[in-house]
């Protein structure tokens, strides 16, 4: 089996995996577009292997695979940065929700103490 066939099968499997994750609603729509672009780009580069050579010569990169690795690394660093931003935002939101819950719990406890005690403050 040639490398071309293996790459083509791999690209199609990646696209099918993305569609399956979308179908099962395990991949959010905001990330789905990004991964679909990656999957389609991989499929196009696989179908037209000369395209990567043309792009690498245009970018001034000697070896086409180096351009592919560079783009992949830049993409993955961008994804890691975005996910770090999302985690930071969610941690802040979780902290605020925990503070609001603590305040509400205190209010409920005080309300229960007032209602269970008699009008003179004795239970």
UniProtKB/TrEMBL annotation:
Indicate whether Membrane appears among the record's keywords. yes
Q: Name one Pfam family in it.
A: DUF2304
Q: Which chain regions cross the lipid bilayer? A: 6-22, 34-55, 67-85
Cited InterPro entries? DUF2304 (IPR019277)
**Keywords in UniProt for this one?**
Membrane, Transmembrane, Transmembrane helix
**Protein name in the entry:** DUF2304 domain-containing protein
């Amino acid at each position: 089996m040639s490398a071309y066939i293996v790459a083509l099968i791999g690209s199609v499997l990646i696209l099918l995996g993305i569609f399956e994750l979308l179908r099962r609603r395990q991949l959010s729509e905001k990330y789905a577009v990004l991964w679909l672009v990656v999957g389609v780009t991989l499929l196009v580069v696989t179908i037209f292997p000369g395209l990567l050579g043309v792009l690498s010569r245009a970018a001034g990169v000697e070896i086409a695979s180096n351009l592919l690795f560079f783009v992949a690394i830049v993409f993955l660093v961008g994804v890691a940065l975005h996910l770090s931003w999302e985690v930071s935002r969610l941690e802040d939101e979780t902290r605020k929700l925990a503070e609001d819950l603590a305040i509400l719990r205190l209010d409920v406890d005080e309300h229960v103490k007032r209602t269970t005690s008699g009008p003179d403050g004795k239970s």
